[in-house]
Write a structure and sequence with these properties.
The chain is 52% helix and 15% strand. The protein is built from 13 helices and eight strands. The longest helix is centred in the middle third of the chain and has 15 residues, at 91-105. The N and C termini lie far apart (35 Å). Pfam families: Glyco_tran_WecG. Belongs to the glycosyltransferase 26 family. TagA/TarA subfamily. Catalyzes the conversion of GlcNAc-PP-undecaprenol into ManNAc-GlcNAc-PP-undecaprenol, the first committed lipid intermediate in the de novo synthesis of teichoic acid.
Length: 252
């Protein structure tokens, strides 16, 4: 089946999907069926600002097959620009939705990143939740460029349908982009701190914070050391408010 074209909203030239969760999962199911490599990026304001400041990171985002509106700031920016997305598609939730589909289709998943303890606990928990999905391999995120070849070879031999990478936004997206074709996995997605939550190391923001679009604030309260990274949020908000209806017409 040929994949449908994804409707997008260009946030400062970065094409973010307007699909809701259900249609996103359907599109990615077709991606798995195609057997061709797809990189999925869970776009948030911090990533957008980084892309606007760093050409190499911008290329990573523009070359991805799908950018979903993970950050509430991205959802808000689309609303301000008059081209709203259907809903927020959080990477954490998308990962679980893909595992649910994988249960019925016998998919295989590979987990890459975080610490040895977290990755093992994450794999064990996912096996409990989704016994129909085979965890065909795990590897912690403590490896450098000199070990990339070994990691790629191991993943290729495992031949997963899904590859989830948790090495931090600054590392995971460029790494997937750099090796996408050689990895050859139908769906590859950076998942940031999702393994920490699944393993039980940390807790996701309470529902009230999620509904108020304040997950970022909850994370800041829990991890004050993130404040420097979070400075991109007000910069993004100011940039959107200044541009308003021109958000979707502007590049860098």
């Amino acid at each position: 089946m040929q994949q449908q074209t994804v409707p997008t909203v260009p946030i400062f030239g970065i094409p973010v999907s307007r699909l809701d969760m259900q249609h996103t999962v359907a599109w990615l199911t077709e991606a798995v069926d195609s057997g061709k490599p797809h990189q999925i990026i869970t776009a948030n304001p911090i990533m957008v600002m980084k892309a606007l400041e760093e050409p190499d990171y911008l290329k990573v985002m523009l070359d991805a097959e799908l950018l979903v509106p993970d950050g509430t700031g991205v959802v808000w920016a689309a609303e301000v620009a008059g081209m709203p997305v259907a809903e927020r598609v959080a990477g954490f939730d998308l990962m679980h939705e893909l595992f649910k589909v994988g249960e019925t289709r016998g998919w295989k998943a590979y987990l890459l990143g975080s610490t040895p303890e977290v990755i093992q606990a994450t794999a064990a928990r996912l096996k409990e939740l989704y016994p129909g999905v085979a965890i065909c391999g795990i590897r912690d995120g403590f490896f450098g460029p000199e070990q990339d070849e070994e990691v790629i070879r191991t993943i290729r031999e495992a031949a997963p349908d899904l590859l989830f990478v948790a090495r931090g936004a600054e590392t995971q997206e460029p790494w997937i982009a750099r090796h996408k074709e050689r990895l050859g996995v139908p769906v590859m997605m950076g998942v940031g701190g999702s393994f920490d939550v699944i393993s039980g190391k940390t807790k996701r923001a309470p529902v009230v914070f999620q509904k108020l679009r304040l997950e970022w604030f909850y994370r800041l309260l829990k991890e004050p050391s993130r404040y420097k990274r979070m400075l991109a949020l007000p910069k993004f908000a100011v940039k959107v408010l200044r541009a308003r209806e021109n958000v979707t017409k502007m590049g860098r």
